Amino acid sequence: MQAAVPPFMLHHVGIVVDSLSAAVPLYCRLLGVAPEDVEYAGVPAEQVRVALLKGNVVVELLEPLAEGTGLAKFREQRGPGIHHLCFAAPPPLQAKLDALKAAGFRLLDEQPRSGADGCVFFVHPKSCSGVLVEFVEC
Question: What is the pLDDT of residue 8?
Answer without folding.
Answer: 86
